[in-house]
Amino acid sequence: MMQTPTIPIDTAARARAVHVVPRCMRSRTPERRGLRIAAWLALLASVAAQARAADGPEGLLVRPQGGDWRETVALETEVDYRIRGLLAEVTVTQRFHNDSGEWLEGRYLLPLPGDAAVGALRLLVGDRIIEGEIREKAQAQAEYAAAAASGRSASLVEQNRPNLFNTAVANIGPGESVEIHIGYWQSVDFSDGAFSVALPLTLVPRYQSKGLDTLEALDVPAVVRNAEDSAIDLGMTYEPNVSISVDLDAGLPLASVTSPSHAIEVEPAGRGYRVRLANLVEASDRDFELRWTPRASAVPQQSLFVEEVEGEFYAQLMLVPPTVPVEPVPRELILVIDNSGSMYGEPMVQAIAALDRALSRLRPDDRFNVIRFDHTTEAVFEHAVPASADNVAHARRFVQRLKAEGGTELLPALELALADAATPGYLRQIVLMTDAGIDNEQQLLAYIESRRDEARLFAVGIGSAPNEHFLRRAVELGRGAQVMVRDTGEVRARTDALLARLDQPALRDLDIRWPGVAEMYPSRLPDLYVGEPLRVVAKLSSPAGRIEARGQGRHQGWRDAVDLLTATRADGRGIARLWARARITELDDQLRDGASEEDIRARILEVALRHGLVSRYTSLVAVDRTPVRPVDADLASAAFANAAPNGLAYANGSTGARLSLGLGLLLAVLALALMGRRREETPAPGRLRKDID
């Protein structure tokens, strides 16, 4: 292999390190700049208020009309998995108990896996069982509101985001307990020889990216605007708890069953295993992950499951291409690290360790750069440089000095990472290390898709509760891969696993040919990296015939085939729901890409209503037909808050969200006053500096 000559550090490149100033801070006049600074200060203070609201423990709260939040309602959550092969059927049971003397309405934000197909709702009130039904969103809201107003028990499940759901239950009587059962289906993951499922139990507060080019951003403070989205409220006195049990039948002999996130107990049960949390009730301040590894002799090369639903056939296929060692290609590695405020504490420790590990593995013939971002963006070098010992040492010192603070403006960092074309002869790879606590997901995904031919995007999810849904979609569009680092002890192993994939070229130009007519998702197959399987779901015209898969490696092609007659027959409607969820996801992508909303809405409604799934246009609603609340009794509202993610800490001595917001408004007033004084003292406005565009 030809060696790239090693050159000294470009000291000028250091001096030209790129700093990107948010657009909202730029202005051609002092007056307008002062106005924008006022808006910016108010936003920063409101974000800080949102963050500090996570300082204390959380619980289910009640706020009578005109009153303050106070503890009134307890919530218990039980999660039961039934895993068969590549399909997980999950039931989440939420138990509300009202220990007050008032009739209550409870609300809760429920994070779920990004591919979760939510399609079941059951409400238990005393000895009454009310089954949920799928409805168009507006109709479901109307039915729920009417039930709440008329004193009947009711529950509602709505999609907030593809991986975030709002649940509500109305008319919980004094001293009464109510149970909500929510059912969903998800695919089992397979990577690096191990199967896994993950359950988000909390979420990182999301930073809301705003241009702040107008005064509209001052109308509603971010802490108020995001109160429901972040599910972090004031006055909380205890954390929500969760218990988890798993009925695991992998369909093959296993070498181990482990969890990197929680202590578990595993015992044989029939053909499989029964898994429980070692602590009967566990605080839900981190995502739950379960892994099971097959024996070396039983690692599957192909798995195929087929089910029949109402005369239609659905298939779930997984193929594992063989690993063929090849000589690594020269690469241009752009490492992008998130040092925003949501990364404070353990997440920042993990990110720095992962990035330092990546830098230590650079080869002399690689080129690289490091970009860090919070609400500003900075690159170590102006352009990618050779991975000489001096350059790498300089970058490692830069990384070790990073501190977590500020907002989370990811888009400028991605724009900077993709600003230059790859050096001829090099494969450009971008590795993003973040918890992805961002609000503008659709904007970011659209940008990544528009630049998908420029580079490959990889992600290292950081912290106890990373936004896995966004990271998964980002790397799918960026034709890369991802790993999740939920524990400091896994930084080395998980980072090495990702870098090993970067060392090997992907299997490209994948194609699957089905017998007869098939509607397959994803319809555009991703590139595959070492240790990754090819996974699809499809709706078939016939359950017989031969499936053929092919792809192109760096030096040779790959082919595989499987006969539908050898497929394992699945019971229930799980695969059909996974197919429907995948189709809805693809339709959502088309909407983001500019398709007609009227057309997409009609197509999503057809799929969601047919398969009984919650979507952006459909919801589940369960309504008791018998009134339980006296007509003369008021209904108070309650909001349940998720636990703050484990390891997510903020500076000691914070004095509460309201005071922070007040300080922010005070800063805004001071900035406006200074602006007014500047206007009096400045005879004519002029441009004071050259802005970066």
TrEMBL record:
Q: Which Gene3D superfamilies match?
A: von Willebrand factor, type A domain (3.40.50.410)
Q: Which residues form the signal peptide?
A: none
Could you name the domain of life of the organism this protein comes from?
Bacteria
Domain VIT, first and last residues per copy: 58-186
Residue ranges the record marks as coiled coil:
none
User: Which Pfam families does the record cross-reference, listed alphabetically?
Assistant: VIT (PF08487), VWA_3 (PF13768)
The segment(s) forming the VWFA domain are 332-502
Report the InterPro entries cross-referenced here. Answer: CHP03788 (IPR022440), VIT (IPR013694), VWF_A (IPR002035), vWFA_dom_sf (IPR036465)
Note the SUPFAM superfamilies from the entry.
vWA-like
Can you say what this protein is called? Ca-activated chloride channel family protein
